[in-house]
Amino acid sequence: DKGTYPYYMLKEIDEQPNVMRKLVKKYFDADGNMNVGCGLMDNILDSDRIYIVGAGTSYHAGLVGKELMEKYTGIPTEVHVSSEFAYEEPLLPKKPFFIFLTQSGETADSREVLVNVNKQHFPSLTITNVANSTLSREATYTMLLNAGPEISVASTKAYTAQIAIQAILAKAVGMRGNRQVAKDFDLGRQLGLVATGMQSIVEEKDKIDEIAKKYFVNAKQAFYIGRGVDYTVSLEAALKLKEISYVHAEGFASGELKHGTIALIEKGTPVIGIITQKKTAGLTHSNLEETAARGANALTIVRQSLAQDGDTFVIPDVDELLTPLLSVIPAQLIAYYTSLNKGLNVDRPRNLAKSVTVE
Ligand code: M6R
Questions:
Q1: Side-chain half-sphere of 332: how many Cα atoms within 13 Å?
Q2: 3-class DSSP state of 267
Q3: Helix crossing, 157-176 with 187-202: angle to 10°?
Q4: How far is the CA of 332 from the centre of ligand 1 (A)?
Q5: Within a 13 Å sphere around the CA of 139, how many CA atoms are in the beta-carbon half?
Q6: With 90 as the cut, is the pLDDT of residue 357 above it?
Q7: Residues in domain SIS (predicted)?
Q8: In whole angstroms, what is the distance from residue 355 CA to residue 353 CA?
């Protein structure tokens, strides 16, 4: 039931702070010990490479997961689009471990990969929102997102829950592998800060509604740009905008724009820089200025400690690798309000189904 909300998508965006709190409750006990199965952790520790597989938004969550897994477990990690992996399987090492990200647990492209993985007897984990779903039943292990039903076709809370679970898994495995960097990661506290930060962002809806009206409702195209994890969030931000508001959008590595795509920038094209990483903030700012010099409406989603005069939307500071949990939310809301102000059916975009059960 969507209660007083006009659309499920807005309700689901608003639920994100609570989903974070629930995950902390579920995976950390009062003493800060973590509840992640030993068999699962040992299987991952025993592997020589982690493969994260997913489609659409779940794939984008995997791109952040890769950074988390590599930093905290020290195990090389690759992320693949499931429909590509299914028929172009890369050369695998001796002991791969597979992580399937799927909100529904029913995506045919991802299942096709799992079927092949099972044929080769490799261990696997499905991270899903739906207990007893096909991919959950067929994988060796399951971790549940506990995000509550996601009804809107556009995935929002599943993305943030998938990132949070991958952080939990990465820390747990890293600690079991005795890695200092994992022991030092105060994830329980950080996820608490994330929940509070999310809350403050969703309370700024009016501001984002204004941004949507001013820059996006009449736009033919838009760009999100960033570097590192900000680039991965750009991909997700652009997907949201395309999917529900039918504005053609691209997520771009900000340094790559000048190698061709900048030719598309016209007077008034919205270009949003996602700027949360200290070491690349200055670079993305200058890439953004290059687009402004060609007529773009340059906008920013910036973390507090990197904010300057003239930034468009400031998000609170949290651990750098966890910032996608916050930076994606203004982008989800920009897509929502653009769609709403265009009078579209936000929850049921054309040509799409919630769960894609054909290859
Ligand atoms: O249920 P899944 O996570 O496996 O679904 C994967 C994609 O179909 C899904 O994330 C899709 O991209 C969303 N509609 C995006 O908002």
A1: 30
A2: coil
A3: 170
A4: 14
A5: 30
A6: no
A7: 40-179, 212-349
A8: 5
Task: For residue range 334-345, list pLDDT tens digits in order.
Answer: 999 999 999 999
Position 353 scores a pLDDT of 85
Tokens of residue 195, six digits: 């929940």
Q: How far apart are CA 249 and CA 310, in angstroms?
A: 23
Q: pLDDT class for 354, splitting at 50, 70, 90?
A: confident
Cα(128) to ligand 1 centroid in Å equals 11
Letter string b/e over residues 15-27, b meaning 16 or more CB atoms within 10 A of that residue's CB? bbbebbbbbbeeb
Closest CA to 153 of 88, 76, 56, 230: 56
For ligand 1, atom 6, the nearest C-alpha belongs to: 55
In whole angstroms, what is the distance from residue 241 CA to residue 243 CA?
Answer: 6
Tokens of 106: 């029913």
Predicted pLDDT at 119: 96
Q: How many CB atoms lie within 10 A of CB 182?
A: 20
Could you tell me if the CB of 332 is within 6 A of ligand 1?
no
Q: Hey, whose CA ends up nearest to atom 11 of ligand 1?
A: 56
What dihedral angle (degrees, nearest 10) is formed by the CA atoms of 159, 314, 212, 160?
Answer: 10
What is the pTM for the complete model shown? 0.98
Crossing angle between the packed helical segments 56-73 and 157-176, to the nearest 10 degrees: 20
- How many other C-beta atoms are found inside a 10 Å radius of the C-beta of residue 106? 18
Whole-number Å distance, alpha carbon 33 to ligand 1 midpoint, is 32
Angstrom distance (rounded) from CA 68 to CA 351? 34
